[in-house]
Structures are given as structure tokens and as C-alpha cells.
Amino acid sequence: xxxxxxxxxxxxxxxxxxxxxxxxxxxxxxxxxxxxxxxxxxxxxxxxxxxxxxxxxxxxxxxxxxxxxxxxxxxxxxxxxxxxxxxxxxxxxxxxxxxxxxxxxxxxxxxxxxxxxxxxxxxxxxxxxxxxxxxxxxxxxxxxxxxxxxxxxxxxxxxxxxxxxxxxxxxxxxxxxxxxxxxxxxxxxxxxxxxxxxxxxxxxxxxxxxxxxxxxxxxxxxxxxxxxxxxxxxxxxxxxxxxxxxxxxxxxxxxxxxxxxxxxxxxxxxxxxxxxxxxxxxxxxxxxxxxxxxxxxxxxxxxxxxxxxxxxxxxxxxxxxxxxxxxxxxxxxxxxxxxxxxxxxxxxxxxxxxxxxxxxxxxxxxxxxxxxxxxxxxxxxxxxxxxxxxxxxxxxxxxxxxxxxxxxxxxxxxxxxxxxxxxxxxxxxxxxxxxxxxxxxxxxxxxxxxxxxxxxxxxxxxxxxxxxxxxxxxxxxxxxxxxxxxxxxxxxxxxxxxxxxxxxxxxxxxxxxxxxxxxxxxxxxxxxxxxxxxxxxxxxxxxxxxxxxxxxxxxxxxxxxxxxxxxxxxxxxxxxxxxxxxxxxxxxxxxxxxxxxxxxxxxxxxxxxxxxxxxxxxxxxxxxxxxxxxxxxxxxxxxxxxxxxxxxxxxxxxxxxxxxxxxxxxxxxxxxxxxxxxxxxxxxxxxxxxxxxxxxxxxxxxxxxxxxxxxxxxxxxxxxxxxxxxxxxxxxxxxxxxxxxxxxxxxxxxxxxxxxxxxxxxxxxxxxxxxxxxxxxxxxxxxxxxxxxxxxxxxxxxxxxxxxxxxxxxxxxxxxxxxxxxxxxxxxxxxxxxxxxxxxxxxxxxxxxxxxxxxxxxxxxxxxxxxxxxxxxxxxxxxxxxxxxxxxxxxxxxxxxxxxxxxxxxxxxxxxxxxxxxxxxxxxxxxxxxxxxxxxxxxxxxxxxxxxxxxxxxxxxxxxxxxxxxxxxxxxxxxxxxxxxxxxxxxxxxxxxxxxxxxxxxxxxxxxxxxxxxxxxxxxxxxxxxxxxxxxxxxxxxxxxxxxxxxxxxxxxxxxxxxxxxxxxxxxxxxxxxxxxxxxxxxxxxxxxxxxxxxxxxxxxxxxxxxxxxxxxxxxxxxxxxxxxxxxxxxxxxxxxxxxxxxxxxxxxxxxxxxxxxxxxxxxxxxxxxxxxxxxxxxxxxxxxxxxxxxxxxxxxxxxxxxxxxxxxxxxxxxxxxxxxxxxxxxxxxxxxxxxxxxxxxxxxxxxxxxxxxxxxxxxxxxxxxxxxxxxxxxxxxxxxxxxxxxxxxxxxxxxxxxxxxxxxxxxxxxxxxxxxxxxxxxxxxxxxxxxxxxxxxxxxxxxxxxxxxxxxxxxxxxxxxxxxxxxxxxxxxxxxxxxxxxxxxxxxxxxxxxxxxxxxxxxxxxxxxxxxxxxxxxxxxxxxxxxxxxxxxxxxxxxxxxxxxxxxxxxxxxxxxxxxxx
Length: 1463
Fold this sequence. Notes:
About 25% of the residues lie in helices and about 25% in strands. By secondary structure, it is an alpha+beta fold.
């Protein structure tokens, strides 16, 4: 998990390896150059001691030295200046790449991170190498020097003497300059290099013997090389090159760096690590003797520096470069730079070469770089030569270096012991007593780094001893020395020395394995002192790199992360980026707990700082790692920042595909950005996508899938056939095409079920029976239909597709050239080629004609329907694949601005692929065998089929209740095949009547066949038309009505597919109120007086329901009334005023007489008509069409309603009737008795209305209303009034609850044998006849006898036995009679005389008369009908079963006293 290759111990040991200078003669360099190497470069791979060595400490104990590594550098080499050091640091990072990733499972989430961090290790190694040696420590000082001469020297002894003298001058120069030496006594080691081919062996042996005699055997080494002759070169290209990893990279070689991945301008590295050129105590400058050619090791080309580098190099103590830009911007194109006022006189010895005029001073890399050539190293070296190089290092370390170190440790220990306890100065003693012992405290008034020690100061001797022991692995003695030195430095307030001692003391404790909390505090205090007191972040950074390795070695990842974060600052973006990245890995590796969010946050910060440092490649990598944590966390703004940065960085790195994917993620429905920000995101995406398309144009790839707009695959709808035309005017006729099926139809739910039932009814009626598996015809395919079967298309008929495009952004999205993508495979030929329009231009030979939409504007935050059309021109299989379009940025809509400048319009082609989800099976059985693929986009195209176009002329969308309207129906075959068997079915057949030769069939719904004339041969050929008249009748209730008509027709070729086709028409009608009709059938007593049959009086009340404030004004005239009944006939005499015209809310009442017809056995019409308005043109008999059709429709509907359930308006008042009616089949005698109240007639009212609309336009309407009169004495209203649940309960009667023991209603025979009491009381009616006025002389005769004839009428269908009783003058009878007197001044009582009772048997609907006499004793007005009681019973029934009739009449007889006669 982002592991470093070196362990903490190895890293610390290598960071403080002993440094040895190498001084070579010119001939040595020439000898080594045969191998393309310098002597230092040649020996680098062998500088590690592979064996264990020993030396003795002052106490005599042997100390083992393991894995000793010696750093050998040319004595003239110098650390690079700060600007060049920054360059090395940036290149070390940019040239390192991520090799592989590793996956971690943390909390159920997978995180991919680099397995190793070579860029961090390279930067860390480079950072330690470019540091200048400091006077407060000796780890970077040379402990010895190797003098190397060649055996080919003319005078080897003189050359060595000259080199020794030069080395002595470097050691004793005052003031001290580079290089720095560990002490006054420097180890000198002498090496004689001998070229085995070109050199003289004898001379070499003589020279080496002289050297051993002069300098000693242990200090000299004979090195033979180039043993391979030039003619015997072997091909070693396959062997590894041990020197490649130690050679410095060429500045001009950038082949391994991605374009734009490293800093290219000074602005991008303005805030880099500030490396000081020197740390001195005497104020001297080391750079005066420095030569530019020595800045780099051999093989490195010259360095060209700009004026900015001079300012940075010379301005160590001045204000650093300030870079001003947006804190989260991944780019640094527009940045402002503020250069410090640098002192040009401080530039030492003109070491910096001015910039050439032809070179851009702001460009660092990638300009004029030359192709790197492969260089082979060690060509003339054999394996023996390599062994001699290893032996050189072995002999130098064991025989010379370690004895020298042992001697130096002994001397330093003795020197420190002799001076221990003696105060160095009065000033230091005073500071110990009165000064602060912590850096930065108020008592610490000493200027920073103001303490200057002499080279032989005891404090420095302690530090020397500690450094020497630390470099050679004696960590316990080193810790003691550092611990003692840090107390002295603290007392002297030498904070730089103090921080260094603390740092090394902590490292010594870690290396010897005795890590305590105190040692960790030493390191923390040292870092803080470096930062705050010494103001030297470079040493704080080094200490942090070492300390964090120690902490990670002890698994203290949280503490390590804190130290990494503490060293992040604005002065170096590259350093901060690397340290933040390491801190994030520490958070990820911490186990208690796993700090996932801290990892994500800090890796984002690292990516941001990488971006500011110009390291785009690493910035891109960090943001990709961060996105793994922020993905699907609903942190949309954080995700947007990550995606935007990834897109920008990938675009700069020319990874256009990656950039397009990142920018596409910004255009999602979850975006919470503002409209302006979303517009910027869209412009970035379109720009990158345009570049990507231009890059891939040569490869001829398919259209890219764009992120916008969104397409819901399940919402795609496919409509087969042409869309219905719009309404139009043909002269004075308003032509309304059949609505058919459109995308606006709601076919889901009950509506779809109704159409399917109509189709099932039509197929069953026309074909005689339904197929075994009936599947309704689908013309509009959607997510609610059964799409397992492929749709059927016809050649030449369009296929229309409705696509819902969603724009989730807050900005408009313009689309251009929108069309459908399809693939087509012709059915002819076994190897027919698949044709697709995505990669080809459409021509006249194309099998599909595609419609293109020029422009579609998707409004912000909306879902918009786009309807596209394709027309197949050949038979085959058509697959609709998706939608193609050109998408541009919203700036394309601003081109109308009055400006000559062309708007910045970016347009890219793209597509959306349709994806329809597979429906889930409704049951788990036979899942494998079920074909559940949604095939709505896979269309089978057939050759020919008829196509019926239907037009309605003069079809109005607004009618009055019951209004009749004449419509002309036109049929036209627009297909390429003849059609036959034309039928129509409707959910409301009572609303229309077809004329002509149409025939009706009865079924669950009415099915009507539309016949063709004889000259058409029972079929409609292509192009032919046929006209049929049709009458429409508006419903009886106002509101909105819908007439659904389904037309069925078959292909004349019965074997063709499809066999039949359908046309839908849905007529939405607004129904306005017209009239309100109330009628009641009442018994008439006139039958007995006239000698006719039974007579009923029909009272009618007609009201114009039009309101005064309505927009439409109606004036209604009553034309005629008709009665439809087999038993009753309407009399011509009607009591009604002439020419009645009803205005709004006016009511008219009239009475019609109905008489029972005699049964003659002859067939007669059931209709009888009475004209009410003789001034109007007769409307015709009700027996004619279409009036008879609508009457039959009404009758059939009432019959259906009665079968489905009783109508609320026809409930019987007696609840026992309902109980009896529910007991099964009644007794025939009961039915005969119930016929006394049954009418069973239909009253039809014809009317005419003059309708005036709001604009003053008038029209004439004719209407027809039907009222079913079922029972005598029950008022009937039409349209029926709505009845609430409480009123329904009242009509049904009180709720009766019977206990388990109550059996009064449990016997079915009782209710079936006997009629209800209400019926039994209304079986007989009667009337009386007598003289209306009688003159009688009461003086002559005290009693006046009035003759009375009583006529009894049997109203039932059964024979009845009727009993007549005359009542006496009782108080009860008298009180009852008084209420029925015709005159308020009636006289007293009268008495029946003579026949006072009789029994009569009267046949069904027959009448009988008896004669009675009434005697009165005084003149007056008498009600002769008040004292009669009529009872009846069935023949054979006991007399006690006779039921008194409820019929009563009032008949006044005036008896006057006549004067006496003359006689």
C-alpha cells in the first residue's frame, strides 16, 4: 500500500552515509571516458560494503559495521543553486510514473492506490542530494579524499604531490569555502589506475611500489581496468546496466515525461522549496570559487538561466516569488508574478550565464529538446575489472576508512573528556542562569543563529563525535554525544545547532531500537525549532522525512500524518503536494480507526497542489484516487470539483477520451450548480468532445454517446400508421377526421380494456368465433402494452416514434438535425446485408426514409416529447436503435445579437442508444420458456394492406341534452389493397344511428355492419370512397360525454397479414342542459260515465333548464308527444295551450288522456302521436328512422339497467314488494293482480330549440326525450335526479332485522302466493251516476229518493269477486264524509234505501253496474260517493279475505225544495 522500497533503517542509514571526496588527474578521466563514465560514476554501483567490518570504540569494545555505504563525489562538485535545485526536484517527480495499483477492501469499499511511490522516493533522494552542507552539522562534510592518478602519467610522484598540495589548499582556505571537511585531519587514499590495453605494465608496477613506500600499503590501491581489447567487444545490450540508476538525468532529455505533466514556466514553480545556497557562521560566501561547469556532474550539458533564476538565486533573504491565482484552479495560465527586488551585486563571480536572446526566458522544458540516444556504459570493462572495483571499495573501507574513524573517535573522546565541565565562556554561563532554555520564549532575546562557534569549540567536537559515530553505526555513543551537545546548544541559545542535535538524538534512539516518548518529543521540538526559530524549512522538511519514517516504522501513522501536514505551506507547492499525498496514505493505513474521509480530503489537497506545481500527471492521478471515496456519496459539489479537475488535467495531457468522460459526469441530473456554471461545464465538454472527434475522425468511428439529453427507454412509444389529419373546413361543412390513435391518448387502464372488449366483440361477431388465443391489436406500443410480439409495419406507412428527452440542467440545450438511427435487413435473399444509417448517407435507394428535425430547443429542467418518423420502403426487419443529433452550447442562441463578431458556437454530433428494460415475469413458473423480451423497437415490415380513412362531416362538439344531429360519414381506402367486411362497434350505441343499408347486430355491445352499394362488389377498392348518413343523439344528462367507436375492416386478400385492421374514433362532446320532464299516470273515473275502457290521465310538466346567465340561450318549442305501448293508446285530445314556447326557466303543464286498447287480435302499431304545435312542420312518425332507433336504444338500455339492478328512481314505496320480488318466480295470480298498477309505456317528447350563442349566431336543434311510465301514481322525472344514500334508504323502507327465532318472513310461499297489500287495495275503481240537481216538494213527500248507478271497473288481469256495502249514519262515517264534501255548506246525512249491498263477479278489465237509491229528508247538497265501501277478493277465497279498496270518489247532488204544484 504505497510502500517505499527502503525500510526506515535503510533510508536513514543512506541519508547519512559517510562522504568521501575524489580527486582525479586528467589522464584518469580520459581512461574512464572509454566506458562513457567518469571515475566517480564508474565506482558508484560498488560503494556499498557487502561484508561486515569492525572498529573499536574508546572503551575497547568492538563495534560491528553492517551495510556500510560510502558516498563518493568529485572534489570539485557542488550542490546546485536553488533555481537549478528546484528544476532537479520537479524533474525527479515528473519523470516518475505509477507502475501498478493495489486494491484495498475497507469497510465494504474497494480503494485502488499505488503499490509504490517512486516519485516521492525520487524527490526525497533528490532533496537530500541538493542540500548544501551546513556548519551546524558534519554529516555532509568530507571525511576523506581519494587521490586517483593514472599509470600513464609522465611523473606520477609529481602529479600526486601537486594534487596533495591542491587538496591542502582546499582544506586550509580562509574563510572556509566549499567543499566542507569533517576535520583538520582528513584521510587520504591513493589509487593508481592502469589501462590494461594501452598502459605499460612495468611502469605501472614501479609507480605503485613507489606509492606504497611513500604512503603505506594500507593507503594505496592498484586498479586495473579496460581489460577488454577494442577488437573483442561483446554484445552486452541484453545485460543490465549497473550505472544507469546512478547517472544524473540530462536536462534536455524529456522523452520520458508526458507533455504538460511537468512545470513549463517559472510561474508554475514559483512556490518551490527554498534551498539556501549556504549555511555559514562567518558570513563568507562559498560561491566565489565556484565554476558553472562544476554545478553538474560530468555528462550534463550547460544550464541556461534566466533573470528570474538570478533573482531567486540571489534573493534568499528577500521576499519569495508570489503566485496569485484561484485557490482551486487546476491551471496556471493567467497568473501574476511579483519578483523580489534582488541585489544583482550579490551574484557571485558572474556564475550565472545570461539568457540567450533566442530562448524564451519563461520556458523551461520541452523546447528544442533532442532525441536521447542510447549510451552504453562499461564497454571495455570485464568481470575481473568489476571485481577490482569492488575490491577497491572493500580495501578502502576496511584498511583505511575504518581505522581512520576509530582513531578520530578516540581523539574526539579524549578531547571532550579533558574539557568536560569547564564553561566555555562567561557569556554562556550567564545565559544558563538568566536566559531562557527554549527557543522562541520571551527570555530568549538572542538573535536567531547569532551564536558563532570556532571550529575547535567543545560543543562542535561533541557534534563531530556524534555524527562520526552515527554514520558508522555506533548509535549508543552517538546518542550520548548528541544528548550532551543539545544541552550545551540550548544553554548558549544556538537554536540551529540545538535543533540539529535534537534531530540526530531522536534518530540515534530509533536506530538503536530504544524509542521512547522522549525521543519522539526531541524530533518534534527539533522540527518546530527549525521552522519557527531558525526559519529554515529545508532542514525542517528533512527532519520531517526522517521522523515520519520512524513513526511509520512504529505504526504511528496518525502522528506521521500530522507531521506531513505541518510541513505543507505556500512556499512550495511540489513539496506540499508530496507530503499531503503521504499524509493521506498514512490516514488510510491507520487502523484505529480507518480514516477514509481524511484520506479523501488530503488526496484532493495533494492533487490541487500538484496542479499548482505543474505536475498535471500526478494531479490527475490524485483526483482519480479521491473520486473513489466521493463517488455515490451525494456530495455533488465535491464530485463536480473532482470531475472538472480531472477533465482539465486530462485535456492538458492530451487524454481527450478521459477528459470527455470526466466532463460528461458534470452534466448529470444530480448537479446542484448554477445555470452559469452548468453552461461553463457544457462548453468545456463540447470543446473536448470536438477535439476528440477530430482526433478520431480518421478511424471512422461511430457516433459518440453524449451525456445529454437523457432518454427514458421505457417511455419510448411506437405508433404504427399515419397520424390522423387535423380538422378542416370543406365549404360550409366542418370535417372532423377519425381520431384514431395518437400519442396524446391515454390508453392505460380502463380505456385500453374498453377498446380491447370492443375488438373482441367485433371479431366474435364478424368471424363467428374467437381464435383459440385472442390477442388485441396494438397500434401504439408503450411500456403498458404487451410487447413480446414484434410490431407489424406496412410498406409506405410511416412508423412514428415518441421519445421523451430530459434536460436536467438549468440551461437550454439546442439540438440540431435530430433523426432516428435504425438498422434494416431485407427479407429477400438468404444473405441480405444489414443496413444502418449511422455510418452512411441516406439516398433515394435507402430502404427507409428518415425524417430530420432541423432544430429542437430543450428548455431548462424539463422533459420534452420529440416525435420522429421513419417510413419503410421495402419488406424486411426494421430495428430502431436510437436517436442522433448535433448538440451545441447555449451561445448558439445568442447569434441574434447586433454584433459583427461570430458567437463562440461549439457543436458536436452524438447519439443516444435506446435501451428498453426487460419486463419481469408475473409468475415464477416457466421463466425459462417465457419470451419476455420487449420487442417494440423490432418491427416486421410487410408488403401491402388496406388503410381506411374516415371523415365526419358536420360533427359538432357541443349539443343539448337529447338533441338529434345529422352527420355524414365518409369512408376512403388510402391503402394499396381492397378492403371488405366493414363493421362498427361502440361503448355507447344508444348515441348514434347509421342510415343507408346498415344492419344492426345485437351483442354485449351493439355491432353494426356497414354495407357497400352493389356497384362496389361488397368491397372498397384503393382510392374509392363511400358515404353513409348517421344520426347522433346527445345524452340526457349534461356534462361531458365520450362516444367511442371502433371500425373494423378486413383485407380482401384473406391470407395476408394482418387479416383485419381497426380505426378508432373518440368523440368528446359537451352536453348542455335542455328540458326537464316530469310525468305521472293517474286513474280516471270517467270510464264508467262514458262507457269506455280504462282511462289514465298523464300529467306532464316541461321545464326549460337554460339559465338566464348562460352563454348559450335556448328557446324551446314542444312539437309532439308520442306513447309507445301495446296496451295503451294516446288520445288526440290534449289540454295544452297552442304554440307553447319556453324561455329560460319557464315551465308548462298539460294533461294527456290515455285509454286502454281492446284486444282484437289484429297487429297494430304500438305508437300513438299527438301534435302539440300545428304551426311547425311535422317531424314524422316515431316509427320512422332514426327516431325508432333511438327509442330502441333507450329501451334496450333500460332493460339492461333493470337486469343489472333496480333503478333508484323506480323503487316501490312498499318494501315488502322488494322482498317479494326477491323470492324467485311469483304466482301467476299475484302477477295478474299486480297488473292493476302496471302501465309499462314509454312517453316520447319531440321538441325544437333555437340556440343563440354569445356571438349572436343562431342554430336550430331538434331533440327527443324518452320517459318510461311503469306504475300508476308514481311520478317519473327525466333526466332522473340523483339520489343520495339516505334518500335511497328512505325509498327502500326501514331496515328490518330479524332474530334467529323470527320466522315471519322466512317462508317463501307467503310472499309468492299473496300480492302486497298496496296492490290488493287498488284492484278496483268505481264511479257513480245520478242526476246532478233534483227538485222535490218536501211538503208533499217527506223523503226524496235519488236513483244512483254504481259502475265497478276491474283493473287487474284476474277475475275478482266484488262486494259493495252502503254505510249507515255513524259518527265515524260522518266524520270521514265531511272531509270529502264538495261544498263547505253541505247538509246533513242521507240514507241508502232499497238495495244496500251486493256481490258481483267481474272479469279481467271488465266493468259491471248496480242500481242504488239514496233517501234525503231535507233540501241541501249531498256527497253521494262518500258512504260506499267496495271490497274484493279472488274467486273461491273466503269472504274474510276480501280487501277494502282505497278508491274514493266525490259526487255532489243538489236537492232543492220545489214549490207546491197548483194541483
